[in-house]
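Researcher: Good morning. I'm working through a list of sequences from a screen, and I'd like to move beyond sequence-only analysis. For each chain I'm collecting a predicted structure so we can compare shapes side by side. This is the next one on the list. No need for commentary yet; just the structure.
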Amino acid sequence: QVQLGESGGGSVQSGGSLRLSCAASTYIASLYSMGWFRQAPGKEREGVAAIDSEGATTYAASVKGRFTISQDNIEDTLYLQMNSLKPEDTAMYYCAADQKARRLFWLRMLDSGDNIYWGQGTQVTVSS
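Model: Good morning. Structure tokens for this chain:
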């Protein structure tokens, strides 16, 4: 069982920055992939960025060049640096971990279970 706890959300103006953190209860170096997803009101949850155990990263087209995913294997923490934020980035942001395979690397929404774990989310609100 892996527990994930997100933090760092908040309210910023358009063009601002935030850094989200996701603390894991296990050694994240042992995880096959981790990712950030978001869900805006009335919309489906979508993949934002992911990283695998080799350090390879992938991003949704809508955030590429503005967001950076990284991990600290000493602190067992996943990060999402978000720059040049836009109102359309407003959403609940969730951290996810895959203990079995690189499934999250493809930014597909996967349910909890079968070694997939989700955090409770942190709210990001961007005003124009």
